[in-house]
Amino acid sequence: MKINRLQGIVLSAVCLFAVQTWAQASAQLPVPDLALRGARVYANPQAAPIDNAVVLIHDGHIAAVSSASALTVPSGVRVLDCSGKIIVAGFWNSHVHFETGWDDAAHAPVAQLEGHLQQMLTRWGFTTVWDLGSVPENTLALRSRIESGEIPGPQILMAGDIFPLHGHPVYLPASLQLPEAATPDQAREMAERYLHIPLDGIKLFTGAFMGDAPVINMPEPIAAAAVDVAHAQHKPVFAHPQNYAGVDNALAAGVDILAHTIPTENGFTPAELARMKQQHSALIPTLTLWTTVVHNPAVSAHLVDSGVSELKSWAAAGGTVLFGTDVGFQSVYDTTQEYQFMGRALGWREILASLTTAPSDYFHQPQKGRIEPGSVADLVVLDGDPATDVANLARVHTAIRGGRVIYEETPAR
After folding, report:
1. Which of 15, 71, 91, 342 is 20 to 30 Å from 372 at the Cα level?
2. Contact, 85 vs 381, CB < 8 A?
3. Contact between residue 348 and residue 306 where contact means Cβ atoms under 8 Å apart
């Protein structure tokens, strides 16, 4: 991503039109009424289940949810038979990337983009996602086409990346020109440009992995300058740490969310956990990632074990956990393993919260994350109960966003 390219985006009438379309188009399209009948419903992660339930959807929102014996489906409403299934609120994936396969998203065929979205996201129940780094032109165009109703897909929130000086991670192509901030003023300017596009947040590489060379950490004053800009506009800031220094600088700067654990270290320190609790920080574990970045199974297992331990200590200290997989950078689309890894540290209700109520509340979208009258009708229909096996969260039969089906399992022939 080139800085002059970023400036061009800010001035581009095409991108401005895309943003306007994204903001307006959904309201222009009528949403047919829908009823889901016969499932067990978990209205929120703490709620007791409602068996043989009916969920009524009107104008893209939940109109009612109750047992079938207490709620009659109005005539003329399309009914989805969900007998034997489970219904929960729509899932958030708070760490994705629209990197590979999204080129020229403004003009790519609908079927191509819809298929890719299904493989990567909607097939796994994701109705809202945070893109933590991609080419903005492509992702803005994709977002616009989704919001216009042309392509079924999730709500896409976007963060712009800022790297430390000379902090070009070894896993990114050397030819890629990254936005590196050498001073607080540069970080401030970059953050302002991103939010002017407008993107929805900022991501700081407070630690850049340099292979055999030492990690390059972003100095706290540089991180703080970007944080100040984002927080002045009530936008969140994510941090990509690599070690203790990256975590400490991020927390000192006031960063909101750590986008990864730091499994090469020996767990978060007591001081980090205390500061995290004080600042109401959040953590995205991305545990499956550690199985993809190294080829030695023993090393991968150690990294996962360390990440699980850090997740457990974070949750025990009262930290907010947000589900995320780094998918798009890594190519394991299936979320089963991530749920199983998280299940070694958290209960199924906590994992469900990381997918629903926790991000909805943390990112100030309280109309999502719960199945209750007035809420946005973002729903996931599952083929199995997560109360009996957390891996059932990956057994998605249907995903619904704003009352519209954006993924439906094809019956086996």
Report:
1. 342
2. yes
3. no
End-to-end Cα distance, the chain: 45
Does 48 share its domain with 131?
A: no
What is the pLDDT confidence band of residue 70, given thresholds at 50, 70 and 90?
confident
State the Cα angle at 285 between 231 and 146, rounded to 5°: 65
CB atoms within 10 A of CB 318: 10
404-407 long-range contacts, CB within 8 A, separation 24+: 404/31, 404/60, 404/149, 404/152, 405/152, 406/122, 406/127, 406/152, 406/153, 406/154, 407/118, 407/122, 407/123, 407/125, 407/152
Q: Looking at residues 374-392, what average pLDDT do you find?
A: 98
> What are the helix (H) ranges across 148-209?
184-196
Q: CA 13, CA 99: separation in Å to the nearest integer?
A: 23
Phi, psi of 250 (to 5 degrees): -65, -45
CATH classification at residue 386: 2.30.40.10
Range of the domain at 52: 31-88+372-408
Q: Report d(CA 126, CA 122) in Å as an integer.
A: 5
Query: Same domain for 217 and 353?
Result: yes
List, as one string, the DSSP characters of 288-328.
Answer: GGGGTS-S-HHHHHHHHHHHHHHHHHHHHTT-EE-----BT
Spatial contact of 348 and 390, defined as CB atoms under 8 Å apart: yes
Helix/strand/coil for 386:
coil
Tens digits of residue pLDDT in 138-197: 999 999 999 999 999 999 999 999 999 999 999 988 888 899 999 999 999 999 999 999
Determine the Cα–Cα distance for residues 345 and 343; give it in Å rounded to an integer. 5
- Is the same domain home to 237 and 294? yes
- Between helix 110-120 and helix 136-147 the angle, nearest 10°, is 100
Could you tell me which of 137, 144, 183 has the C-alpha nearest to residue 160? Answer: 137
Average pLDDT of the residues of the chain: 92
Position 275 in a domain: yes
**H-run or E-run covering 52:** strand 50-58
| Residue 80 and residue 227 in one domain | no
d(CA 314, CA 261): 10
